[in-house]
Amino acid sequence: MKSDNLFKNIAVNFASRIFIQGLAFFSSIILARISGASVLGNISLAVAFQNVFNNTLSASIGNAHLKLYNENPKIGIRTFAWIALVSRTCIAIFVVLLALLLLYTKSTLYSEIQLYLIILFVIQTVIGAVAQTSNFVFSAKLKAYKANIANIIQSVLISAARVIAILLGFKEFGIANFLNVAAALSIIYPFLQLRSEDWGNLDMKLARRYVSMSFKMISGALCFALLLSFDKMALGAVVKVNNAATLGYYSAGSSLGLMFLSLGTSMGGVFLAVFSKNTGQNIAKNFNILGLYERVLSLLVFPFFLLILVFSEEVIRIVFGHKYLVGNLVFIFSLLHAYIKTQNIPLINVYFSLNLFKRYNLNNLIYSVSIIIIILAMAYLDPLHSVISSVALGVLLTAFVERFIYIYNLRNKELSVTYLKQVPVTLLFLALFIGLKFVVNYFNMPEWEKIVITLLSFGVLITILVFTGVYKKEDIDLARKIVAKKAN
Question: Which of 22, 245, 253, 342 has the fewest CB within 10 Å, making it most exposed?
C-alpha cells in the first residue's frame, strides 16, 4: 500500500512538472516570436537571477522541512513559513541593494534595463514564498495533489499574464509588472489551503534546526541552480548592452534542452525511493538498477535524441522562427547536456542510499566551482568563435565533469564496469549522427532526401546491432513495457 502511494505521488509530480514546463515553454515561444530576441534575452537574464535564489532557497529549506516533519509530524508550520519568508526577503533585499549599487556607480556589467528587471523578478521570488511553503507542507504529508495544485495555479496565472502582456504590446517592464501581479494573485489559493493547517507557535530552537539542516542540503540546491542559470548570467556580462538579442538566441536554443532536462530530473525521486530501500547486502541491487537504466538510455533514448538533433535546424525554424537558427549549436549542445545529466541523476542518489553526505557535499562543491570556471572560460575565450555556442559547449562539458566526479569518488569497480559497457554503442550512434550532419549539410539535401537517408542510416545501424547481439529481446520487451505504462 505504501509503495502504491509512493508511486502515485511520483506520477502526480511527474505530470505536474510536464504541464508546468509545457506552459512555460509555450509562453517563451510567444515571447520569442512576437517580442523579439532582445526582449527574450533581457527577461531570460532576470529570470536566471530569480532562479538561482528561488531554487536554492526552495530546495534547501523545503527539503529541511521534509526531513524535520518526518522526524516529528506534530511540528506546526509557523516556524517553517517564517524561515521561508525571512530568508527570501533577506536575499531579495541584498540583490536589490546590489543592483541599485551597480546602477548608482553606472557599472557596465549589466545594462540599466537588465538591472531594473532583476529587481522586479527577485521581488516576485518573495511573493511566491506562500506557494512554495504550501508545496512543501503538503509534500511532507504525501498529499501530491494539494502539493502541486498551488504550483499549477501559479504557473497558469504567470503564463497567462506573460502572454496577455505580450499580445498587448508591452515590452520588458510591462511584462515584468504583469508577472508580479499574477504572482500576487497566485498566493490566494495556497493561503486558503494553509489556513486549515496546524500552525503551532514560532519556535526559535526549531528555527535554528531549520537553518542548520538547510545549510547541510544547500550544496545540491545551489549546484542545480547554477547549472540552470549561470550560463545566462555569464553571457549577460559578456555580450553587454548592444547584444541583448544574442542572449535571446541562446535562451531560445537552450530552452529546448531544458524541457528534456526537467523531465529527467523528475526521475530523481523514483531512484532515491528505490535506492533507500536497498541497504547492506542489497546495495548491489542499486548497481544492477543503474546498469539497466544506463542500457535503456543508451540503446533506446539516445538514438531518439540524435534523430531530433539531425533535424535541429527544422525544429528551431518551426518552433521559434528562422532568425533563431543562429542558436542551432546551442540546441544541439543543450540536448546532449540534458541526456548526460539525465544519466547522472540516479548515480547521485546512490550517495544518499550509502549515507555518503560529506562526499556528496564535496562533490557538489567541486561541481559548482567547475560550472563557474568552465562557463566563464568558454564565454571569454570563445573557442568556437560564437559566444553562445561556446558557452553551450561549456555547459555540456560540466555534465561530463559531474559524471567523472561521482563515478570516481564511489571507486566501485562493479559500477565503473557497468557504466563503461555502454560507451562503444553510444560512440557508434554519435559517430553516425556527426556523419549524417556533415553529409546533409555539405550536399544541402532537400527535406525528403534528408529524412530518407537519416531513417535508413539509423535503421541499418540498429539492424546490425540486433544481429550482433547488442540489442536483445529483453530490450525490446522493456521498451514495450515502458510505452504500455506511459499509455496507461
Answer: 22
- The domain spans of the chain are 1-242
Rounded-to-integer distance, Cα 218 and Cα 60, Å: 5
Whole-angstrom distance, CA of residue 154 vs CA of residue 403? 34
The Cβ-side half-sphere exposure at 230, using a 13 Å CA radius, reads 23
- Are the CB atoms for 205 and 39 separated by under 8 Å? no
From 338, 219, 248, 250, select the one nearest 42 (Cα to Cα).
Answer: 248
Query: What string of DSSP letters covers 455-482?
Result: HHHHHHHHHHHHHTTSS-HHHHHHHHHH
Q: Which pLDDT does position 285 carry in this prediction?
A: 59
Specify the 3-state DSSP secondary structure of 266. Answer: coil
Please name which of 351, 364, 345 lies closest in space to residue 293, comparing C-alpha atoms: 345
DSSP letters along 322-365, please? GGGGGGHHHHHHHHHHHHHHHHHHHHHHHHHHTT-HHHHHHHHH
CA 378/CA 363 separation, integer angstroms: 22
In the chain, the percentage of residues whose pLDDT exceeds 70 is 80
397 vs 332: CA distance, rounded Å: 13
CB atoms inside a 10 Å sphere around CB 236: 28
The span from the CA of 255 to the CA of 155, in Å, is 17
CA-based nearest residue to 331, from 301, 300, 310: 310
Q: What is the mean pLDDT of the chain?
A: 78
Distance in angstroms (rounded) separating the CA atoms of residues 317 and 486: 29
Q: What percent of the chain has pLDDT over 90?
A: 18
Contact 159, 26 (CB under 8 A): yes
Q: Which three cell numbers stand for residue 473?
A: 529481446
SS (H, E, C) 424-435: HHHHHHHHHHHH
Residue 65 is which amino acid?
H
- Reading the block at residue 183, the C-alpha cell is 504572482
CA–CA distance, 298 with 231 (Å, rounded to integer) = 27
Residue 386 grid coordinates:
560564437
CA 278 distance to own-chain centroid: 27
Q: Which of 245, 221, 244 is nearest to 111 (CA)?
A: 244
Q: What is the pLDDT of residue 144?
A: 66
The CA distance from 292 to 271, in Å, is: 12
pTM, whole model, 2 decimals?
0.81
Query: CA-CA distance, 222 to 59, in Å (whole number)?
Result: 9
Residue 463 sits at the vertex; the CA angle it makes with 475 and 314, to the nearest 5 degrees, is: 90
Q: Kindly state the average pLDDT of the residues 374-388.
A: 91
- Residue 320 sits at φ, ψ, to 5 deg, of -110, -25
Quote the CA–CA distance of 254 and 114 in Å, as a whole number.
20
CA distance 86 to 319: 40
